[in-house]
Amino acid sequence: MMTYQQIGDILNQIRDYHRRFRQALAEIEDSAGFETTETLAEQLQVHEHHWQIALKEYGDDGEEAILNSYIQYVPDDGIQDALKDIRITPAMSTDDVRQLAIRFHSALIDLYATLKAEANAPRVKEFFTRLHRLEQSVTADQAWSSRTP
Fold it and tell me: What pTM was computed for the model?
């Protein structure tokens, strides 16, 4: 039997992933440096803000249609594994924390790529394509900022 999931529910799960990652960052804020954890947490919030902007472009009816659309359930093992691997400790360096964030975002990139490939409705496919591109941009920015001169 195939399982389907509503787009709104998928986005809520991803928000929960973001929340859990922000909590892990907050736990090491003093040791990793406020600037590093704050920057990473802000990137997650900006990402969610971009969802809202992307959804609003479809208008109220379009936004509701996307959120209420169903897609065949896509296993999110990659993101679950990335969250399990997020074991941030005070002994970690700033680069270590950034690398965990990059792994987290890479898992989201894979999830969005799968979702856009599985989507049949053009608006839903377009929406996940936008999220995929945004997540790639966030990850590229993080990778660039973690480079040491």
Answer: 0.76
